[in-house]
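Hi Y.,

Following your request, here is the sequence exactly as I used it, all 659 residues.
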Amino acid sequence: MEKSKKDKKKEPAGLSIRDVTICDATAQMLAKAERDGVETAFHRAATMKACPIGANSACCKHCSMGPCRLNANDPYGKVGVCGATIDTIQARNFGRMVASGAAAHTDHGMAMLDLFREVVNGNIQDYKVKDPIKLEEVATEMGIETEGREVKDIAMDLYHELERTYVAVEGEIPFAKRVPEKTLETWRKHGVVPRGAMREIMELMHRTHMGVDQEYRNITNQCSRTALADGWGGSMVATEISDILYGTPTPVRAEVNMGCLKENEVNIIIHGHEPNLFESMLDSVNDPGLIQAAKDAGAEGINLVGMCCSGAEMLSRHGIPHAGNFMSTESILVTGAVDAMGVDVQCIKQGLAKVADCYGTKLFTTNPRCHIEGVEHIEFHEHTPRECTDTIVENAVVRFKNRTAAVEIPNIRNMGVHGFSHEYINYMLGGSFRSSYTPLNDNIINGRIRGVAGVVGCTNPRVKQDWVHVELVKELIKNDVLVVQTGCSQIALAKAGLYTPEAAHLAGPGLSEVCETVGMPPVLGLGSCVDNSRILIACSEMVRVGGLGESIADLPVAGAAPEWMSEKAISIGQYFVASGVYTVFGVTFPVVEETKFYKHLFGGLEEQGFGKWGFAKDPYEMAKLMIAHIDAKRAALGLDKARERVLMDMADRQKLDAA
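Below is the corresponding structure, written out as tokens. Let me know if you'd prefer a different format.
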């Protein structure tokens, strides 16, 4: 890239590349970016010092009398101008993170529900109900009559019922019907069963305004209520409607990593979180006329690739190759091979604009919620989706024909099995005629599987990309803990080769035996970050099947977000904690240790019958905390002695035969 004198003064800071990522493809592209004088988020993180006061949430800027900065080393030494204590300030800051994260997921869910209504009414022709069986199953759960009725009538009744997830001003959200009774009793006792998400988010924002709620436990209750409106509401609606419209995922072999780009084809990347854009793009890249246009431009074809969460969803549902997680979204543009990138919402770095410009990549925003200064916007309308996606393809073809950037594609591809929806896990364990979680529960009870861990979330440049995810999961499966994953964590583990059935040899003897019997990997990918709702459904099913307690809080399960970075992650963490799950975060945690608010999150909530938060930076310490919690839950259920069994190897069996 030709640089002006002004640009030359802004060369990216040199990185010790192996200290910031374990992803070989990303490392190769970071080295190229430095040669090209291109800055990425890794470089910005190296030069940007995180504010320690903000990181500890000891700063309040909710009014103009401040901002007020308290001392994390002496948290009760002073208060804010209004008299707010450290606990009030932290709870308010935490609450606003929950509100923002919940708003992101529930807005996504409401957009999916709007699309569903228009499809059912026949106002949108480009999408249709692809999984009527799931439609009927969800409707039946919601108490809607399905016998002898038309799909359209069932669908409209389901739409009206799920609409309450967002707009209800009283009562309980529809999917509260899925919550185990004892867990629901705990929610009702503490007044945290969600009404409509709009009301809960609005009330949390009101409570955290200056001079309103000033008792950290009361604020935390509303945090839980709002977060639950996300996990059991907005996110769950998004997942279920996506399955109904686009098909419920079943296992599919697919590639991840940057090697899925093809130098001799038009490469198009879709990055974001809403599947509607990607589903339409799938049609566009298979359009014979557009394929011919690509060939006329000298390409052998059109290559569609995903990134981030919409990529994870398409990976799970259709086997579309996935190029990398959040921290690789800029690095992949450095290949010079990306002809167009279309983005919608969430986790879109503004820095993409400059990197795309450096390599002549066509970058387009498509969603009215997300514009980027200086980036061309092509509005995506669900009623006429191909107008947007065809235009992106046409621009990509032009860019391919006029490529000027040197192309360097890392020759790294990692094959794995993805697409383990709740429904498929149910089938996989029990078969067509007896699908059930009973085999899972039985193997937890007999000790082959120690417990289940959900390892989810982002990648964060404050730690080495992917490393904490990979080392944590290796440690968990080695100790017979079955791992389920969503989002960027899923891609980190797929790149590490843990998404193949052959990876079972890295698991402990009990988990390995189960994996080999079923023919599954020791790590199961469930999709995008809204698909954490699949984990909630799985936990409920484990309780319903029996033998592992009466509530989610009784289960030998734990969760972790080792490299979290967004407010969505805080909302996700809080809805898991409120559901009864011990949830460990890495990198940093927005609270001053040993304050009253800290003790409430890390212990007080559990005493009330919820789960609790945990924190550790080191993956081995994180695994130790999670395994200790799982073992404590096993002991409480009287299952600890089951772990004393010794699995016989072939030599042991031969000795028995000889005797």
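The radius of gyration is 25 Å.

Thanks again,
Q.
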